[in-house]
Amino acid sequence: VAIVAAGVLIVVGIAGMAGLNAASAEGEATRVEQARAAGTDKPPPLTRAQAEDSTKTSCKAVVHIGDSTSEGLDSAEYLPNPKERIENRYHEVGVRDVHMEVQGARSIEERFEGQPNAQEVAEAWKAEGYKGCWVLALGTNEAADVSAGSNVGERERIEKMMAIIGDEPVLWINVKSLPSAPEHYEPKGMEVWDEELERACPRYPNMRIYDWAADVKDAWFIEDGVHFTSPGYAARAQLIAQALAHAFPAKGKSPGGAKCVVS
Question: The CATH number of the domain where 87 resides is what?
Fold first, then answer.
């Protein structure tokens, strides 16, 4: 299996990015089977405060760009109940127009099997005249690609996306993996990415970060230590939507400053 980093083919183990995140029927079927094994008919496993949060957002339109860690957010296979899917959760907090741009193995810089990278997706929306908010559920493959030898580092990847988005509101979702994750997806790389996101915040007044890494429970991961169970995706969908409302509320001020991290 190979990772394409800055135009150079980097050969890695079978559990590398392409093998782990590829949108193949076999890989997807395995993730769905493991995800659903944890049950699909229970409410999202949130705290009472999280479950009762009713904050609304000023965002009326959202483009959500994600990798395979977003696959289960809007999928009937992972979440049979449509009320638990992220499009509905975005509507609940006040978003009218939801545009999901999710692709397995998506990265900001690298391309997989001819699919557009995150920069190209964002550029296409901007070219169409899109005006609105952005949710960037990226970083898992950024950490893996840098670990595998890409000469495009974490900071440059963030800067490239922010340059395309400009001054529109953008919520980044930070990342986490478990020690059981495959080579290049180890927790340390995810932590470095999250730290770089926080360092970027003071440079961009329109940028916020949802601290998914603080909320996600180990029990929400499937065996690969990277992707999530159905209950995990249900929680992730609701928490991302709530974080958007906290980051860019319909009433009151948006948190900012050096940290700009929301829960």
Answer: 3.40.50.1110
194 φ/ψ angles, rounded to the nearest 5 degrees:
-60, -40
Are 136 and 172 a contacting pair, CB within 8 Å? yes
| Distances from the Cα of 7 to the Cα of 2, 152, 160, 182, angstroms | 12, 11, 17, 23
Contact residues for 144 (Cβ-Cβ < 8 A; gap 6+): 3, 16, 17, 20, 184, 185, 189
Q: What's the predicted TM-score (pTM) here? A: 0.87
Domain that holds residue 173: 2-39+51-262
Q: How many domains does the chain have?
A: 1
Gap between the Cα atoms of 158 and 243, Å rounded: 20
Pairing of the two strands 8-11 and 61-66: unpaired
Is the torsion defined by CA of 27, 30, 33, 38 positive or negative?
A: negative
What three-state secondary structure class fits 56? coil
| CB proximity list for 136: less than 8 A, separation 6 or greater | 65, 66, 118, 161, 170, 171, 172, 173
Cα 6 versus chain centre, distance: 22
| Alpha carbon distance 194, 196 (integer Å) | 5
pLDDT in tens, 163-214: 999 999 999 999 999 999 999 999 999 999 999 999 999 999 999 999 999 9
Beta strands at 2-5 and 8-11: parallel, antiparallel or unpaired: antiparallel
**Residue 188, in any domain of the structure:** yes
Q: How far apart are the first and last CA of the chain?
A: 36
